[in-house]
Design brief:
Blueprint lengths: L8 H9 L3 H20 L5 H20 L9 H21 L5 H5 L5 H24 L3 H10 L4 H8 L4 H22 L5
Pfam family, one: Sigma70_r2
Protein name: Sigma-70 family RNA polymerase sigma factor
GO molecular function: DNA binding; sigma factor activity
Protein backbone atom coordinates (compact mmCIF):
# COMPACT_ATOMS: atom_id res chain seq x y z
CA UNK A 1 0.00 0.00 0.00
CA UNK A 2 1.38 3.40 -1.00
CA UNK A 3 2.01 5.78 1.88
CA UNK A 4 0.60 9.27 1.67
CA UNK A 5 2.94 12.20 1.37
CA UNK A 6 0.91 13.86 4.13
CA UNK A 7 0.88 11.42 7.03
CA UNK A 8 1.38 14.04 9.75
CA UNK A 9 -0.34 17.30 10.58
CA UNK A 10 2.95 19.14 10.14
CA UNK A 11 3.36 17.70 6.63
CA UNK A 12 -0.16 18.90 5.71
CA UNK A 13 0.57 22.37 7.11
CA UNK A 14 3.87 22.54 5.25
CA UNK A 15 2.22 21.37 2.02
CA UNK A 16 -0.43 24.11 2.27
CA UNK A 17 2.25 26.71 3.00
CA UNK A 18 4.08 25.57 -0.16
CA UNK A 19 0.83 25.84 -2.18
CA UNK A 20 0.85 22.12 -2.91
CA UNK A 21 -2.72 21.42 -4.05
CA UNK A 22 -2.32 17.75 -3.07
CA UNK A 23 -2.11 18.75 0.61
CA UNK A 24 -5.43 20.60 0.42
CA UNK A 25 -7.06 17.79 -1.60
CA UNK A 26 -5.87 15.26 0.97
CA UNK A 27 -7.23 17.40 3.80
CA UNK A 28 -10.63 17.61 2.08
CA UNK A 29 -10.90 13.82 1.86
CA UNK A 30 -9.41 13.08 5.27
CA UNK A 31 -11.90 14.67 7.67
CA UNK A 32 -15.05 15.23 5.60
CA UNK A 33 -16.71 11.98 6.78
CA UNK A 34 -16.39 13.10 10.42
CA UNK A 35 -17.91 16.53 9.71
CA UNK A 36 -20.61 15.04 7.49
CA UNK A 37 -21.62 12.61 10.23
CA UNK A 38 -21.81 15.43 12.78
CA UNK A 39 -23.99 17.65 10.56
CA UNK A 40 -26.26 14.83 9.39
CA UNK A 41 -26.74 13.85 13.04
CA UNK A 42 -27.71 17.41 13.90
CA UNK A 43 -30.53 18.32 11.52
CA UNK A 44 -28.35 18.89 8.46
CA UNK A 45 -28.26 17.65 4.87
CA UNK A 46 -25.40 16.30 2.78
CA UNK A 47 -25.19 19.58 0.85
CA UNK A 48 -25.06 21.56 4.09
CA UNK A 49 -22.29 19.26 5.35
CA UNK A 50 -20.29 19.96 2.18
CA UNK A 51 -20.85 23.72 2.53
CA UNK A 52 -19.85 23.80 6.19
CA UNK A 53 -16.76 21.66 5.58
CA UNK A 54 -15.76 23.92 2.67
CA UNK A 55 -16.13 26.98 4.90
CA UNK A 56 -14.14 25.30 7.68
CA UNK A 57 -11.28 24.37 5.37
CA UNK A 58 -11.25 27.92 3.95
CA UNK A 59 -10.95 29.36 7.48
CA UNK A 60 -8.10 26.92 8.18
CA UNK A 61 -6.37 27.68 4.85
CA UNK A 62 -6.61 31.45 5.25
CA UNK A 63 -5.19 31.29 8.77
CA UNK A 64 -2.24 29.23 7.52
CA UNK A 65 -1.59 31.54 4.58
CA UNK A 66 -1.96 34.62 6.78
CA UNK A 67 0.38 33.19 9.43
CA UNK A 68 -2.33 33.66 12.07
CA UNK A 69 -2.95 29.99 12.87
CA UNK A 70 -2.17 29.13 16.48
CA UNK A 71 -2.65 25.37 16.45
CA UNK A 72 -2.66 23.86 19.94
CA UNK A 73 -4.40 20.64 18.91
CA UNK A 74 -4.59 18.25 15.97
CA UNK A 75 -5.88 19.53 12.61
CA UNK A 76 -8.79 17.09 13.00
CA UNK A 77 -9.82 18.69 16.30
CA UNK A 78 -9.37 22.21 14.95
CA UNK A 79 -11.50 21.56 11.84
CA UNK A 80 -14.18 19.83 13.90
CA UNK A 81 -14.33 22.80 16.26
CA UNK A 82 -14.53 25.35 13.42
CA UNK A 83 -17.17 23.36 11.52
CA UNK A 84 -19.17 22.75 14.70
CA UNK A 85 -19.26 26.48 15.44
CA UNK A 86 -20.22 27.27 11.85
CA UNK A 87 -23.03 24.70 11.98
CA UNK A 88 -24.37 25.89 15.33
CA UNK A 89 -24.35 29.44 13.99
CA UNK A 90 -26.25 28.31 10.89
CA UNK A 91 -28.79 26.45 13.03
CA UNK A 92 -29.28 29.54 15.18
CA UNK A 93 -29.81 31.66 12.06
CA UNK A 94 -32.41 29.17 10.83
CA UNK A 95 -34.47 29.90 13.90
CA UNK A 96 -33.19 28.23 17.03
CA UNK A 97 -32.53 24.71 15.77
CA UNK A 98 -35.65 24.52 13.60
CA UNK A 99 -35.44 22.19 10.65
CA UNK A 100 -37.82 21.92 7.73
CA UNK A 101 -39.38 18.50 7.29
CA UNK A 102 -38.22 18.17 3.67
CA UNK A 103 -34.62 18.75 4.78
CA UNK A 104 -34.77 15.91 7.27
CA UNK A 105 -36.54 13.36 5.07
CA UNK A 106 -33.52 12.97 2.81
CA UNK A 107 -31.37 11.39 5.53
CA UNK A 108 -33.80 9.58 7.80
CA UNK A 109 -34.27 6.24 6.04
CA UNK A 110 -35.61 4.12 8.91
CA UNK A 111 -38.36 4.56 11.47
CA UNK A 112 -35.99 4.46 14.46
CA UNK A 113 -34.03 7.40 13.08
CA UNK A 114 -37.28 9.27 12.54
CA UNK A 115 -38.36 8.62 16.13
CA UNK A 116 -34.96 9.72 17.40
CA UNK A 117 -35.14 12.85 15.25
CA UNK A 118 -38.67 13.66 16.43
CA UNK A 119 -37.56 13.25 20.05
CA UNK A 120 -34.63 15.60 19.40
CA UNK A 121 -36.98 18.13 17.79
CA UNK A 122 -39.27 17.88 20.81
CA UNK A 123 -36.30 18.49 23.10
CA UNK A 124 -35.19 21.49 21.03
CA UNK A 125 -38.73 22.88 21.14
CA UNK A 126 -38.94 22.52 24.91
CA UNK A 127 -35.47 24.04 25.26
CA UNK A 128 -36.58 27.02 23.15
CA UNK A 129 -39.67 27.48 25.34
CA UNK A 130 -37.52 27.15 28.47
CA UNK A 131 -35.15 29.82 27.17
CA UNK A 132 -38.10 32.14 26.55
CA UNK A 133 -39.36 31.57 30.11
CA UNK A 134 -35.88 32.13 31.52
CA UNK A 135 -36.00 35.85 30.87
CA UNK A 136 -33.24 38.41 30.77
CA UNK A 137 -30.32 38.70 31.33
CA UNK A 138 -29.96 34.91 31.63
CA UNK A 139 -31.30 34.16 28.15
CA UNK A 140 -28.93 36.60 26.45
CA UNK A 141 -25.99 35.47 28.56
CA UNK A 142 -26.50 31.79 27.69
CA UNK A 143 -27.14 32.55 24.01
CA UNK A 144 -24.00 34.70 23.85
CA UNK A 145 -21.90 31.94 25.39
CA UNK A 146 -23.34 28.77 23.84
CA UNK A 147 -24.74 29.93 20.50
CA UNK A 148 -22.69 32.99 19.58
CA UNK A 149 -19.57 31.40 21.16
CA UNK A 150 -18.48 34.61 22.87
CA UNK A 151 -15.76 34.28 25.50
CA UNK A 152 -16.26 35.16 29.15
CA UNK A 153 -14.28 38.41 28.89
CA UNK A 154 -16.65 39.74 26.20
CA UNK A 155 -19.65 38.64 28.27
CA UNK A 156 -18.17 40.24 31.42
CA UNK A 157 -17.87 43.59 29.63
CA UNK A 158 -21.23 43.35 27.84
CA UNK A 159 -23.21 42.61 31.01
CA UNK A 160 -21.11 44.83 33.30
CA UNK A 161 -19.88 42.11 35.67
CA UNK A 162 -16.91 43.00 37.87
CA UNK A 163 -14.76 40.13 36.54
CA UNK A 164 -14.97 36.94 34.49
CA UNK A 165 -15.36 34.78 37.62
CA UNK A 166 -18.54 36.67 38.47
CA UNK A 167 -19.75 36.17 34.88
CA UNK A 168 -18.97 32.44 35.06
CA UNK A 169 -20.85 32.16 38.32
CA UNK A 170 -23.86 33.94 36.81
CA UNK A 171 -23.70 31.69 33.74
CA UNK A 172 -23.74 28.64 36.02
CA UNK A 173 -26.76 29.96 37.94
CA UNK A 174 -28.59 30.74 34.68
CA UNK A 175 -27.82 27.27 33.36
CA UNK A 176 -29.20 25.69 36.53
CA UNK A 177 -32.41 27.73 36.18
CA UNK A 178 -32.68 26.72 32.52
CA UNK A 179 -32.26 23.04 33.44
CA UNK A 180 -34.99 23.36 36.08
CA UNK A 181 -37.38 24.94 33.57
CA UNK A 182 -36.52 22.34 30.90
CA UNK A 183 -36.97 19.31 33.15
CA UNK A 184 -40.19 20.69 34.63
CA UNK A 185 -41.69 20.28 31.13
CA UNK A 186 -39.61 17.53 29.51
CA UNK A 187 -40.39 13.93 30.28
CA UNK A 188 -38.61 11.31 28.12
CA UNK A 189 -40.98 9.25 26.02
CA UNK A 190 -40.66 5.58 26.91
Amino acid sequence: MKKSLYETDEAILEGIRRDDERALAYLYKLYFPMISHFILSNSGTDDEAKDIYQEGVIVFYEKIKGNTLELSCQIKTYLYSVCRRLWLKRLAEKGRYAVKMEDSESFLPVEEDTQHHEEQERQFGIMGESLEQLGEPCRSLLEDYYIRMQNMQVITEKFGYTNSDTAKNQKYKCLQRLKKLFFATYKPEV
